[in-house]
């Protein structure tokens, strides 16, 4: 029995030993060969790629598998993937647990080469084709000590022309299982790698098989080279990232509350550092963004709650170059527009209700520090490009938040073009946008910005320093648009400008100050307490070609444009009416002003200066309809005072202006260049007084121009083609009164809406007409001033007589008064005889004397004494008797009968024959005219108001038929010299 048992145990032991030997031989020697051949064949078949395995080791007792030098070649012959060593150690418990239980799994030096081809397919795309899912349960597993050692992944992107490499990748997972008893356990992960030379570390723990999927990861990235990844930006841009490095440390919490709820994603204690960031526009050579250092400390980002809280944001020494190209685009605009994405014109992008965020992001920032930044701005859209540099920019903020109705504190300071400073500090709110800032600026030269506000004018501002000190507030009152308000002061000092064309200095001033400013936007309202302009100077120059510098500066050159058809012109809408915003300025003060006038269009040039200009205006308001008061004073050549006073209302329905200008005693000799050109004489002496009164109501103008010229003297004659042909010297003497003054009152009226209406032209025409009247009909004008108008040019006499009548004496009295008031005039007196009427009177007188002579002879024959003819009277009953006797005594041939006796003819025929043979010579008529002139002269001289040397008798004349003067031809007529 014992032998039988021994034999059985021997056989059993032999069988067991044989099995062990077979198991050992198969496990150590056969199975590796089988696995190697199967791996090579099946992998090559399934992957459609050449697969090679150098060595396979199996330990059947430890249930371990070790595969060495696995290589998978890609279709292009390059290595697709390789593994230096793959080790897997199973546990026997896998049989009982009906799960894959791994004691240890490791992969040493795995290598993967990923290629993206030009058709955007990857070299592994054929391996990951979608297959229909089956309903089989997922594999149950329990993995212990999972390691990936020194792995490498190479990504070749032929589309972007980039290559990315992950090297030195080490992954450790101590335990990972989806068995029910372990689904609530946390699984630990550790990943260390180098991405393109950047160390990356990810560690943490996760419950990936729990319903919450709760995962905590600690991520640490150091020196990520941004330019390597710029080709993978999710938008197209013309911005090139030349350099930039990112350091990031954060803790990520991920959890899933269950479908369909979105996952919870939270970042804790995030640190983000951006170093040496340099951006350049592809069309520019210079970098436009340089940020040497930027960091965010202790940031918490809660994605589900849309909340970001950070302790500190810090950056320094940044540099921005902002450029606006001629087309109007900015150098950073390509980036912004690409981020926002294209929009179809006229159809704004609409979010579906599902895509709309439930709430806005909440941002809380404890501290923000920006130090020593610099911004260079260049605008090429204007003819003269704008260049502005802001440097030493320092910005600090505390408690910035997007929480509704909450505010943070900010402080900003910077230098403007090195010399100016700008400072702002106060409280700022983001939701809604509010601000309460104290702002100040000093020495800010705004001349580089002149293309924005000067437009096409031919003026260049060389300097203009802006100073601001006040409060800027942004607030809401229930309206959607915020109200912006500035209260404080502003000044523009050391202002200087030049003409672009002639390079002459133009407007300058020392200070221009606005105090008590209260400006509001939405709605716009402007209120200023006091506006003061001090020490200003402006040249008014007429250039040699006759153009004024003001016109060439303010009026841009008109370019020739194509003629637009009339039909097209009708389609062009009229420009909207521009209205001024409501404003009020309590007082305007201009002091120490100076205007330099130079006329270089005449030879010699004329120059004059108005100094000590002072203007005071009060009550200027677009809200009130009452006029504001204006008072202006100044001195011409620092001697002659000028004063303007009045009231102006520009903002009522009917605009109103009432101004009075007074100039006292301006010396006229400096005006010799104008007098020589237009009058033909120099002015050695004279003073000018002006009193101008103008009133404008609506568009109707009424004006009075009272002009007084005192002691005016004309000097030597100057030859000028533009000089008037009028007798200027005579006009001057005519207009001078007894005190040597020339007084002229020139009224002006008209409609300012009439494009043909020009005040200066009307005044000049009035003065020219006055001089013309002086030259052509001086006595008529003198009569208008002192007597009976044109009738003052002569006095009439009875025919045949030279005795002054009462009416003639009255007219002479007016003439005497006029001559007395015009002491510089000389009077010429000329007697005139009527060749018909005066001769007829002379004949009638001599005819009567013939009758009287016959009566004297008759009385003498009767023995009576002879009487003078003047005392002899011819009675009516005697008339025919003495006509017949005179006829018989005549010595001219008379009709006789056949016996030689005188024929007896009617008395009327006797009268006619007697009158016809009475002769009156021209000398007798001239003598009559001379006596008339002498009578007038004697009457004027006896008045003792006119010096005899101012009176001249000229040769008398007999009026001719072609000189048909008005009134009697028996007269004395006058002429002024």
Structure report:
- The chain has 977 residues and is an alpha+beta fold.
- It has a 34-stranded mixed sheet that branches.
- Helix 12 (837-861) crosses helix 13 and helix 13 packs across helix 14 (907-916).
- The longest helix has 46 residues, at 2-47.
- The chain is rod-shaped, with a radius of gyration of 60 Å.
Keywords:
alpha+beta, rod-shaped, 39 strands, single chain, 15 helices, five-stranded mixed beta sheet, 34-stranded mixed beta sheet, 977 residues
Tell me the distance between the termini: 187 Å
Q: Globular, elongated, flat, extended or rod-shaped: what is the shape?
A: rod-shaped
SS elements, strand count: 39
Q: Sketch the major β-sheet.
A: 34 strands, mixed
The proportion of residues in beta strands is 35-45%
Mean pLDDT: 80
The proportion of residues forming helix, as a percent range, comes to 10-25%
Instruction: Quickly count the helices.
Output: 15
Short description:
By secondary structure, this protein is of the alpha+beta class. The protein contains 15 helices and 39 strands.
Write the layout of secondary structure elements.
Blueprint: H1 2-47, E1 51-59, E2 64-73, E3 79-90, H2 93-97, E4 100-108, E5 111-116, E6 141-157, E7 162-177, E8 187-195, E9 198-206, E10 215-225, E11 239-255, E12 264-281, E13 287-302, E14 307-316, E15 319-324, H3 333-340, E16 362-379, E17 386-401, E18 407-416, E19 420-429, E20 434-445, H4 450-454, E21 459-475, E22 483-499, E23 505-509, E24 511-521, E25 525-534, E26 537-542, H5 549-554, H6 566-571, E27 583-599, E28 606-621, E29 628-636, E30 640-649, E31 656-667, H7 672-678, E32 685-697, E33 700-713, H8 728-735, E34 741-751, H9 759-776, H10 778-786, E35 794-796, H11 806-821, E36 827-833, H12 837-861, H13 879-889, H14 907-916, H15 922-942, E37 951-953, E38 957-958, E39 971-976
Parallel strand pairs: 4-6, 5-6, 14-16, 15-16, 25-27, 26-27, 36-37, 36-38
Antiparallel strand pairs: 1-2, 2-3, 3-4, 3-5, 6-7, 7-8, 8-9, 9-10, 10-11, 11-12, 12-13, 13-14, 13-15, 16-17, 17-18, 18-19, 19-20, 20-21, 21-22, 22-23, 22-24, 24-25, 27-28, 28-29, 29-30, 30-31, 31-32, 32-33, 33-34, 35-39, 36-39
Helix pairs in contact: 9-10, 10-11, 12-13, 13-14
